[in-house]
Design goal:
It is a single chain. The protein is α/β, with parallel strands linked by helices and 339 residues long. It has one domain: Aldolase class I (TIM Barrel), CATH 3.20.20. The protein has 10 helices and 12 strands. It has a 12-stranded mixed sheet with strand order 7-8-9-6-5-4-3-2-1-10-11-12. A hairpin with a 4-residue loop joins strand 10 and strand 11. The radius of gyration is 19 Å and the shape is globular. 39% of the residues are buried. The mean pLDDT is 90. It binds S-adenosylmethionine and iron/sulfur cluster (SF4).
Length: 339
């Protein structure tokens, strides 16, 4: 049994978020510039390299892996990779096995991949959907096809996957649709999660105007819906959930700029280029690809992971100016680190 992953603040790391590609078939306004330059392909870890790193993390106590990107489903042979990771899911939570393998997707290719996900042992996924209005959806995603994403979501539900819809809350863009999204999620039996915009990299858009504090949204929603707090045992993720009594589904609020989830943070992020980030806001990272490609042993990789954990910050350091100016974040994009 390998030693478990403990950071300098004594937090046990049991959740790994893996970006399998920075590429995407959409260009969401808050995420990427229209003329996004992707990494050269050789810079992205091969599935063999990703699999080796995931194995090392699982052996050291990671229980949940979420695959993300970019758009994870645009990567060729992704089904085989997910299937191989699925083999590490344990039935009874045995040491050295995964409890959960999940995925965050924009849904465009879900219709073709939903069954493969189920076959690999994936039980639930997050699908991003910022609008139920086709033209607005097209404007936000720049090149997404609304019908394809909706078809993907239905295919996922029909295949038996639990779905959580993720919506980035944008003032003046989609804040008139939240009641419709709650109703629609109720109809398809999906939970819903609202995300505050985060200052990750340059997208060519000024995100200051779109920032919508979720505590205001929650107050607004409470006028039309009965919201009851949900207490989730062991929940260490950034979302805080309420039950919507009228639909029976949950609504989550992700407020990354508050610190309310840092104390219990159990996660690290492996970017598609092999950098390991111990916090979404970290500017520094350790380079696991360099060790992998220099022929490093598993012990070398484990030592570098420990080095990163020793530097995991207690709290994120997004800079929030008091004068209402732009929030400062790292220069890399969410699609590289994996949102
Ligand atoms: N392509 C997939 C998708 O869209 O679901 C997975 C990757 S995407 C980077 C993961 C999540 O990050 C999505 O829900 C997306 O809306 C969110 N996201 C991306 N950039 C963001 C930003 N600057 N602020 C807040 N959320 C962001
Ligand atoms: Fe692509 Fe997801 Fe970023 Fe949109 S949010 S551009 S779908 S990676």
């Amino acid at each position: 049994m390998q030693s478990s992953l403990i950071d300098s603040s004594g937090r046990q790391i049991s959740y790994l978020r893996v970006s399998v590609t920075d590429r995407c078939d959409m260009r969401c306004v808050y995420c990427m510039a229209e003329d996004m330059q992707f990494l050269p392909r050789p810079d992205v870890l091969s599935f063999q390299e990703l699999g080796r790193l995931c194995d090392i993390f699982i052996d050291r106590g990671v229980k949940r892996i979420r695959l993300t990107g970019g758009e994870p489903l645009v990567r060729r042979d992704i089904d085989q990779f997910i299937s191989s990771l699925g083999e590490r899911i344990g039935r009874g939570g045995e040491a050295g096995t995964l409890e959960e393998l999940t995925l965050t997707t924009n849904g465009s290719l879900l219709a073709t991949h939903a069954q493969a996900l189920v076959d690999a042992g994936v039980c639930r996924i997050n699908v991003s959907l910022d609008s139920l209005r086709p033209e607005r959806f097209a404007a936000i995603t720049r090149r997404g096809h609304f019908d394809r994403t909706i078809a993907g979501i239905h295919a996922a539900r029909e295949a038996g996957l639990l779905v959580r819809i993720n919506t980035v809350a944008m003032k003046g863009v989609n804040d008139d649709e939240f009641d419709d999204l709650i109703r629609w999620c109720g109809e398809i039996g999906a939970d819903w999660c609202l995300i505050e915009t985060m200052p990750m990299g340059e997208t060519g858009e000024d995100r200051r105007d779109q920032y919508l504090p979720l505590h205001d949204v929650k107050r607004q929603l409470a006028k039309n819906w009965t919201l009851e707090p949900v207490f989730e045992k062991g929940a260490a993720g950034p979302a805080r959930y309420m039950r919507i009594v009228e639909t029976g589904q949950k609504v989550g609020f992700i407020t990354p700029l508050s610190h309310n989830f840092c104390d219990a943070c159990n996660r690290v992020r492996l970017a598609c280029d092999g950098k390991l980030y111990t916090c979404l806001s970290s500017r520094g990272a350790v380079d696991l690809r360099a060790v992998l490609r220099a022929g490093g042993s598993d012990d070398d990789i484990r030592a570098l992971i420990d080095e990163a954990l020793a530097r995991k910050p207690l709290r994120h350091d997004f800079l929030i100016p008091q004068d209402g100016g732009n929030v400062q974040g790292p220069s890399r994009l969410m699609s590289v680190t994996g949102g």
